Amino acid sequence: MPPPTLTPVSIIENVRLPESESVSTWDISIDNNRGIITSITPHQGQSDTAGSRAPLALPALTHPHIHLDKAYIHNAREYAHLLPFNGSFAEALSSTTQAKCQFTHTDLLKRGEWLLAGSVAAGVTAMRAFVEVDQAVGFTCLDAGITLRETWKDACTIQLVSFAQDPIFSGQHGEETRQLMEDAIKRPQVDVIGTTPYVEVTAEAAKRNIVWAIDRGLQYDKHVDFHLDYNLDPVTEALVWFVLRTLKEKGWSARSTHKRVMLGHCTRLTLLSREEWTRLAKEIKDNDLPVSFVGLPTSDLYMAAPPPRDDTNNPRGTLPVMEMINKHELDAVIGINNVGNAFTPWGTEDPLSLACLGVGIYQAGTKANAELLYECVSTRARAAIGLAPPHTGLSLRCGSRADFLLFHEVDESGCGVVRPRHGVAGIVWDPPAKMSRVVIVGGRRNVSSPSFGHPRDVSSDALKTSQELYTLLQQ
């Protein structure tokens, strides 16, 4: 499966922008050599505005946390015997370990391309992708990830995480896995060091895991990404405090390095008191710690649960991302995590479906909330993984990379009916099909996306008008 065909675009005329979509339309000029937006000017011709078909231009989408090597295990015939039987976390660990014993380079490329193709068609132009390194798979997943990273680099920036899902300081194979990780993180294609402290046998080993990753991140100038505090047990110590303390002791701050630390899952934090949330935010702000949190709702709601008790219900938990941003001014985003495997057998690779789910999870039904949820899978997500400056908002900016989406109103039903969606809120509340999205990446248009059905020769240097695009979409 080849990456999509990309055609340079020099100007996109007559589009709506989120800050002024009801009053005017705009022309976006692009420098193809640098792949950046050079100007955004009012459209001088006849403008299509409210009630018409002028596309809405929004920033491209981002996966801040997704597992490339474990994607779509349930869709591959060779793993049919590993479909969930009881749906537990323990079963997911066990069946995934069995699946990893069958991983081959060819299989990993096939399933990885399924994920990349679907993501790029949805509008994802950057992702942080985890690939496992341990005694079971060696460098098989990493090597496949490096191949995919290079093959798909024009369509999507893939930030690779060398990831230890298994213990590195305990268990039968801890030392071997740690040595493999030591070798893997020296590779220039590896951008991030990822570990899972909570799988260690003891709390002491979990803390050694954290110190090791932070030390290696500073040593090799890499980002660090922890799967952390993935439980809902009030008795279990929240390791987030140890992470923050270690970063302070090691001198890792936004002033000392541009590399960042991401904390994923962290469902244990849903049990924090108001005072503890205030303390957490203060610790990060006062010490200038470049720490971001990523909630992973589809996995968290499926897997994270307190220890079972016969006399109580088992609630589910995921990070309160909206409250973390609005109330505590923490840097938080949301991500897909897994798709099509035992850890998350439901959901899609489309980040907009996650933003839509967030409306219900966080009871976030206002237009402002919808815009913030879109940021959490686009601009905020990209900044959180260190691929963009830390700014918020959905405005396209001159001088920034020309990665954005054009959302068109098209007939998704095949019945000749076009139903409009008004603004960012309409897109988040009811995500339009991929066929309605035109992807611009680095100033080039994805002409082989589902938006067009198949590649078309439509002007190699300019995307002239929204009406031309709409006509193509309807054919």
Calculate the mean pLDDT score and round it: 89
User: How many β-strands, per DSSP?
Assistant: 16
**Low-confidence parts, pLDDT < 50 over ≥5 residues?**
449-475
Write down the Rg.
22 Å
Tell me the CATH superfamily of the largest domain.
Metal-dependent hydrolases
Structural class, by secondary structure, is alpha/beta
Under the CATH scheme, the architecture of the largest domain is: Alpha-Beta Barrel
| CATH topology type of the largest domain | TIM Barrel
What would you say about this model in short?
This protein is an alpha/beta fold.
Keywords, separated by commas or semicolons:
single chain; 475 residues; alpha/beta; Urease, subunit C, domain 1; TIM Barrel; eight-stranded parallel β-sheet; five-stranded antiparallel β-sheet; 14 helices; 32% helix; globular; disordered C terminus; Metallo-hydrolase_Enzymes; Metallo-dependent hydrolase
Report on this model:
- By secondary structure, this protein is of the alpha/beta class.
- It folds into two domains: about 5-60 and about 405-475, Urease, subunit C, domain 1, CATH 2.30.40; about 60-365, Alpha-Beta Barrel (TIM Barrel).
- It has helices at about 90-100, 105-120, 140-150, 175-185, 205-220, 240-250, 275-285, 295-305, 320-325, 350-360, 365-375, 380-385, 425-430, 465-475, and strands spanning about 5-10, 10-15, 25-30, 35-40, 55-60, 60-65, 125-130, 155-165, 190-195, 225-230, 260-265, 290-295, 330-335, 405, 435-440, 445.
- It has an eight-stranded parallel beta sheet with strand order 6-7-8-9-10-11-12-13.
- Helix 5 (about 205-220) links the parallel strand 9 (about 190-195) and strand 10 (about 225-230).
- Helix 5 (about 205-220) packs parallel to helix 6 (about 240-250).
- The longest helix has 18 residues, at about 105-120.
- The radius of gyration is 22 Å and the shape is globular.
- The model is unreliable at about 450-475 (pLDDT under 50).
